[in-house]
Design brief:
The complex is a heterotrimer of chains A (512), B (415) and C (362).
Chain A (H helix, E strand, L loop, with lengths): L14 H4 L7 H12 L7 E7 L6 E7 L5 H14 L5 H4 L5 E4 L2 H9 L2 E6 L5 E5 L28 H9 L7 E8 L5 E8 L5 H12 L9 H8 L11 E3 L2 H8 L4 E5 L5 E4 L3 H5 L2 H5 L2 H31 L6 H11 L6 H21 L5 H18 L5 H13 L6 H39 L1 E2 L2 E2 L47 H8 L1
Antiparallel strand pairs in A: 1-2, 2-4, 3-5, 4-5, 6-7, 7-9, 8-10, 9-10, 11-12
Chain B lengths: L1 H16 L10 E11 L6 E8 L17 E8 L2 H8 L6 E3 L5 E5 H6 L2 H5 L1 H4 L8 E5 L3 H7 L8 H14 L8 H10 L3 E8 L29 E9 L2 E6 L1 H9 L9 E6 L7 E7 L5 E5 L7 E14 L10 H30 L7 H4 L6 H7 L1 H5 L4 E12 L9 H4 L2
Parallel strand pairs in B: 1-4, 1-5, 5-6, 6-7, 13-14
Antiparallel strand pairs in B: 1-2, 2-3, 7-8, 8-9, 10-11, 11-13, 12-13
Chain C lengths: L7 H11 L8 H9 L6 H23 L4 H9 L1 H34 L5 H17 L2 H26 L16 H10 L5 H5 L10 H29 L2 H4 L5 H8 L10 H30 L9 H12 L5 H34 L1 H4 L1
Helix pairs in contact in C: 1-7, 1-10, 3-8, 3-10, 3-15, 4-5, 5-6, 5-13, 5-14, 5-15, 6-13, 6-14, 7-13, 12-13
Classes of the chains: A alpha+beta (512), B alpha/beta (415), C mainly alpha (362).
């Protein structure tokens, strides 16, 4: 951090080969390529020499053996070159993609991203053949955003698979998967997916510019990309929605949002995001109207409890004891009689303890998992109370506020909420309700000033936009007529409001 | 980074040192009842605080079972708030009055007329709320609080809460709090009724036949707690002037629309067999209709109709009222008459003895005036009410007989 | 000032907080001093006397398009007179704010933090207000709108709870100390609706002028009805002899109600919402006042003014010795001064505009 060094290291190792075009002499090409890839020590850098049948010239094939499909190389490149007869290489290598390249920097990029590059003696053009076969996990179940009702698939660490997961959910020729490259040393693909006749061009352009202007050596995952893209890195609230569920991402795509997926990342970024998109869970829509909204109600309650229960407890007991009903007051007091530390510390200790259990539970190796629960519950819950270090009511309060925090399923918002909780606890212990309410007001003000790609955090509640009305509670699916206006979709109508779009007449037949 | 450390250090010091109004729960003790007695000196009162002991009555381990559930302390002071400070010279914890349930005034104190002075403080601070109940005790407030030793409810606040609620529900004491005291006393037109209680029970109970013609201390009782709540103390202009019996208190409440009454259990003379009495529950479902025909010069006419319902639950004489229309009519009339008579007696008493009424009727004359000056000039409690011509009607709307169609026929049983 | 995407609903929320919220502060007891049990009729008078001027101002704003209050004044009255009038408006608005701020700090102190010194409470109050106002108009509108339902629910709950302690006949004698007193004193306090005029400084910032008019009309009507209903509640709960003795009628009521037998002391519950509304109210006011000053002095950016203006509330509000002098002398006099200013300002503007012949041109 200190001192602020303004010096920038501008020397880039990739600068040099950019200018180098492919030589006519194949040996020069070979030598240069090998040098760049340090072929003598780089074990999986492989090359093969052969004489092409069709032109009877010496041919080199370069690739990384670890990221290509060797069978494809054999059947798609080596065999045709050795056996087939034809006029140009296009007729010989019949594999799906064959790209001509003229300069070495492209050659390196291609090899790095799993292509095989073919040099032919006497030609200043090299050919890159897509034989990439990166190892990736199979499509698995969503681990962190689970659902009872609804699809179970999750994104996996391969961009191709992820694009396919989204495409299979939205069959439309206007669904664009625009590829952009990020990183200057290791170039990785980012796929910007959107429906071209829905998306707001301004937001899209803004995003593209942000991605283009990234000047970093390497952005290896989408989680890092998220932090590069967001507007206020110090902000308490997330502004880009992160999800591992393709079905959730697809829902947003068809509303005119933009989804980013990236190689090596088993998640997608959705933007612009509002408070509501973090607060909702895809299952709210999959469940029936009443059930989904019941869940929403519970989540709102949990949200309030997790943010405010400990803080309110401190404020009320330390500053406004008259508020507690006498029976409860007397039992809290009697429990506190033998506790050696102030109530504020009690709460802080328990809250921190809970966070610690949670954190270690997350990091603990799987086989040890169950122990953490037992040890945590035993030590914190019972022993501490019996030893008289804390009063039993604090255990209830802390456990409640801790447990309810889990109902905020979104990992980003979850953290915001947990940190906010501590802020409120501290403010409550300063001046009771006065400072607590003050902090709460500022918190709301702060939240409503947050913007994600120009979209207000609380839109469409305020500022108001035409939308599905899916905020605190969701509407009946049939009555969702409008796309969310805050993202300014080109086609605002989701469904014609005059046409209920259902078979009401058909249903009425059975009603009576 | 250094600044950050310093900042958090300061923050924690502030947090731990506590800010002005922060008090830990265990550093406070909670006053449940306040008693006020007179002393010899003018303007100085004996103030009693009953403090709840939080450790009794909880399931917490290690609490001393020998500790009493309450502690009672008395100090001298000019008002309640400053007395809490004096009390702290020997009570270790800060006294909090927020949870006070009752304010006990000794009858002597109440009659001295100093009441307004002593409890004025309650409207100036917020510790004593408008919802606190006023009780007038026959004996010294300190004795009343001391003797109040309920057997079943160990926690004192619970006791007062339950006791007062129940007693006022059945109507033998009025349900009146400080808020009402101020409205009526400051309104300076009507009488304020406060529950009357005593823990000194007369050894020779008065024999007067009915179950509610008593005032506290006179009810014959065996076993149970030694405190009785019965009847009401009558306050005129903040000064106690008389005591009403339980029966009169009930009647007064039926005539007042600003008090919520639930069922009042009471007995009435059996019109067919005067040796027995009929027991029933009186319920007022509709408001009492009070019509005041105000005449500036001349006698004001007040016409009061009390519609009520009655559910008979005991007919010891075993007379057939439920099916015999003639008997039923008799009973109806007898009940109406007895109530009307009792009410008329009470009204007469208040007209002649008190010169104003405890029914909050002054409200009904107000719409005859456009301004406060006119109203005050007309003077309800000196000019209008004492000379008014008052007619009272109790109208029995429905008469129910419980779930039995007929009683057991005694003569048949004794065959 | 850049446009925001605020619409009628946000203005409605802003007005219900700044104006309607006066039902819960000492305004009620200020009125009750003169009106006694009929003081609930006085806001009606106060409102009716202000409404023609307000409508006239709205008409002028609409005619001149894209001008906010101060720009309008300057445009019509010219540079120097305009500056003078604008300064007066600023001073009145700022003094109203200062007196109110002291008032709120006192209420908090007396009722909930008896041992804390007023300056400390005032400081916390102002810190929150400063940081809130810093967030800008869009944020203010959004936050106010989002929190409004909760604040209103608490108020409605209170009204329902107190309903059982109401004695309707206490509204009689209907005219209290006399109709003349009601009319005169009610009219004198017209400036409790001064915020309706002050808020027109934000005229151009709203998404369109139609939304602004809609929000202003509904907001002011709602606040007015709300205030009247609550004053009526106070009258019927406290009798004519008690009502002028209480300084904080709202808090007296919250202390009196209970949620059944178990929750008997629930005033802190209502206090939370009340406090939230108080914070919002002052955030809005300080923002608007800073804006007025910024516009008066022709500053491009007025937001740097928020800090000094918030800061000076602190010493200035502590001038009054106690809450009673603050309310009954300072605030009362201010009402008397402010009312004619707000009544005649639009009329003056209209006359000048008319004589210049500008109204026809546009």
């Amino acid at each position: 951090m200190f001192p602020f060094s303004k010096k920038k290291n501008n020397s880039n190792p990739n600068d040099e080969p950019e200018k180098v075009t492919i030589y006519k002499e194949i040996d020069k090409n070979e030598e240069y390529t090998k040098k760049i890839f340090s072929a003598d020590i780089n074990k999986d850098f492989t090359f093969r020499t052969l004489t092409a049948n069709y032109c009877q010239k010496k041919t080199y094939i370069f690739f990384y053996s670890s990221i290509v499909n060797s069978e494809k190389i054999y059947n798609g490149i080596v065999r045709p070159l050795l056996e087939a007869d034809g006029k140009t290489i296009n007729n010989i290598i019949t594999i799906e993609s064959l790209t001509e390249i003229k300069s070495f920097d492209k050659v390196f990029d291609q090899i790095n991203s799993g292509k095989a590059v073919v040099f032919i003696d006497g030609e200043t053009t090299a050919y890159s053949v897509d034989v990439a076969d990166f190892q990736a996990r199979k499509v698995g179940k969503a681990e962190n955003e689970r659902s009872v009702k609804g699809p179970k698939e999750a994104f996996t660490e391969s961009i191709g698979v992820n694009v396919s997961l989204l495409r299979k959910r939205f069959h439309n020729q206007k669904l664009i998967a625009q590829t952009m490259l990020v990183g200057s040393r290791s170039k990785l693909e980012v796929s910007v997916m959107y429906v071209s006749d829905l998306v707001d061009q301004e937001i899209l352009r803004n995003l593209q510019k942000r991605i283009e202007s990234l000047s970093v050596d390497n952005i290896s995952t989408i989680e890092l990309l998220e932090q590069y893209l967001e507007e206020r890195p110090y902000s308490l609230f997330p502004t880009i929605l992160y999800t591992e569920r393709p079905d959730y991402a697809a829902q947003f795509i068809e509303d005119g949002y933009i989804v980013l997926i990236m190689d090596n990342s088993s998640a997608a970024l959705i933007l612009p995001a509002t408070f509501w998109s973090f607060f909702h869970s895809p299952e709210d829509r999959y469940s029936r109207f009443l059930f989904g909204n019941f869940t929403r109600l519970l989540r709102m309650l949990a949200f309030a409890i997790t943010i405010l229960s400990s803080a309110t407890y401190i404020a009320v007991t330390n500053f406004h004891s008259e508020m507690i009903p006498p029976d409860l007051l007397l039992s809290i007091t009697s429990a506190r009689e033998r506790v050696p530390i102030p109530l504020f510390l009690e709460v802080i200790i328990m809250e921190i303890a809970f966070e610690l259990i949670r954190e270690s539970g997350l990091r603990i190796p799987n086989p040890l998992g169950p122990t953490i629960g037992i040890v945590g519950a035993l030590i914190i819950g019972q022993a501490a109370v019996e030893a008289g270090i804390i009063s039993p009511i604090i255990v209830i309060v802390a456990a409640l506020s801790g447990l309810t925090s889990f109902s905020i399923a979104n990992t980003s918002l979850n953290h915001s909420v947990r940190i906010s909780r501590f802020l409120f606890i501290i403010s409550a212990s300063l001046f009771g309700m006065l400072s607590l309410v003050g902090a709460l007001v500022l918190w709301v003000f702060y939240m409503s000033s947050v913007k994600s790609f120009g979209v207000s955090y609380f839109a469409p509640l305020s500022p108001k936009y035409k939308s599905t009305g899916d905020m605190y509670f969701r509407n009946i699916i049939k009555h969702e007529f409008w796309r969310p206006g805050q993202v300014n979709p080109t086609d605002k109508t989701k469904k014609n409001p005059n046409n209920k779009g259902d078979s009401t007449n058909e249903k009425n037949k059975f009603k009576s | 980074m250094k600044q950050l450390h310093l900042g958090s250090l300061i923050l924690f010091t502030i947090l731990l040192a506590g800010c002005y109004d922060r008090t830990e729960l265990e550093e406070q003790s909670y006053v449940i009842a306040i008693g006020v007695d007179l002393t010899d000196k003018n303007g100085l009162y004996k103030i009693t605080f009953q403090i709840a002991n939080p450790e009794v009555g909880t399931s917490m381990t290690g609490s001393g079972p020998d500790e009493p559930p309450r502690e009672t302390v008395t100090v001298e002071g000019t008002d309640i708030i400053s007395a809490t400070a004096t009390a702290n010279s020997f009570v270790s914890k800060e006294l909090k009055l927020d949870h006070t349930k009752v304010l006990v005034l000794s009858e002597k104190f109440a009659r001295s007329g100093d009441l307004l002075r002593a409890i004025q403080v309650s409207s100036r601070t917020k510790q004593i709320r408008g919802g606190v109940q006023i009780i007038v005790s026959k004996e010294k407030a300190r004795d009343f609080i001391d003797n109040n030793n309920p057997k079943m409810e160990t926690r004192p606040h619970k006791y007062y809460q339950v006791m007062l609620n129940r007693a006022s529900e059945i109507g033998i004491i009025p349900n009146t709090d400080i808020h009402r005291f101020f409205q009526i006393t400051e309104g300076d037109a009507d009488l304020f009724l406060a529950p009357y209680a005593s823990t000194e029970i007369d050894e020779k109970p008065k024999e007067n036949g009915t179950e509610d013609g008593y005032i506290a201390g006179e009810v014959p009782q065996e076993g149970g707690s030694r405190s009785q709540f019965m009847g009401s103390a009558v306050f005129k202009e903040g000064k106690m002037i008389d005591v009403l019996t339980g029966a009169e208190t009930r009647i007064a409440q039926t005539l007042d629309n600003t008090i919520d009454l639930s069922d009042i259990y009471s007995t009435y003379e059996d019109p067919v067999d005067p040796n027995y009495r009929v027991a029933g529950a009186f319920a007022k479902k509709q408001n009492t209709a009070i019509k005041i025909d105000y005449k500036e010069n001349g006698t004001t006419k007040i016409d009061v109709t009390v519609p009520f319902e009655m559910e008979i639950f005991a007919i010891p004489s075993l007379t057939n009222y439920s099916q015999n229309a003639k008997n039923r009519e008799k009973l109806r009339k007898s009940i109406e008459d007895s109530l009307t008579k009792a009410a008329e007696d009470l009204v007469k008493k208040s007209q002649e003895k008190y010169e104003t009424e405890p029914f909050y009727w002054s409200l009904y004359v107000r719409n005859n005036f456009k301004t406060i000056q006119e109203y005050e000039k007309a003077d309800w409690n000196k000019k209008i009410f004492p000379h008014a011509d008052i007619t009272i009607t109790y109208r029995l709307e429905t008469l129910e007989f419980g779930k039995m169609i007929d009683d057991t026929h005694l003569n048949e049983v004794r065959d | 000032m850049k446009k925001t995407s605020l619409k009628a609903r946000e203005l409605f929320a802003i007005l219900t907080i700044t104006v309607g919220f006066k039902l819960a502060d000492t305004t009620a007891s200020n009125y009750a001093q003169e009106g006694k049990n009929a003081f609930w009729l006085m806001p009606i008078v106060s409102f009716l006397i202000m409404i023609p001027s307000l409508l006239l101002l709205m008409y002028l704003l609409k005619k001149y398009k894209n001008k906010n209050l101060i720009q309008l004044i300057k445009k019509i009255l010219g540079k120097h007179v305009g500056l003078f009038v604008s300064l007066i408006i600023f001073l009145v608005a700022y003094s109203l704010l200062i007196v109110d701020a002291r008032n709120y700090a006192d209420q908090i102190k007396i009722l909930y933090f008896p041992e804390s010194p007023t300056p400390i409470i005032q400081m916390i109050f102002l810190i929150v207000i400063f940081y809130g106002a810093k967030r800008g108009l869009q944020s203010i509108g959004t936050s106010t709108y989002i929190t409004l339902p909760y604040l209103k629910i608490s108020i409605i709950l209170l009204a329902l709870l107190i309903a059982q302690s109401i004695v309707w006949l206490r509204i009689f004698p209907i005219f209290g100390d006399g109709l003349g007193v009601l009319l005169l004193e009610g009219a004198r306090r017209g400036s409790i609706f001064a915020d309706l005029f002050i808020v027109t400084i934000a005229y151009t910032a709203f998404s369109n002028s139609k939304a602004f008019s809609k929000g202003l009309i509904f907001g002011s009507l709602f606040s007015w009805i709300e205030i009247t209903i609550f004053f009526l509640l106070y009258t019927t709960v406290f009798d004519y002899n008690s009502i002028d003795k209480r300084a904080f009628l709202f808090h007296d009521i919250t202390q009196y109600v209970n949620f059944g037998v178990f929750f008997t002391n629930v005033e802190t519950f209502f206090m939370v919402f009340w406090l939230g509304a108080a914070f919002l109210r002052f955030i809005i006011l300080i923002y608007l006042v800073s804006w007025i000053l910024g516009e008066t002095l022709n500053l491009d950016e007025f937001e740097p003014l928020i800090f000094p203006l918030t800061f000076f509330v602190f010493p200035l509000s502590l001038i009054a010795e106690n809450t009673i002098t603050n309310e009954l002398s300072f605030r009362n006099n201010l009402f008397t001064i402010a009312t004619p200013i707000f009544i005649f300002m639009p009329i003056l503007l209209w006359i000048v505009a008319k004589s210049k012949g500008e109204l026809k041109k546009i």
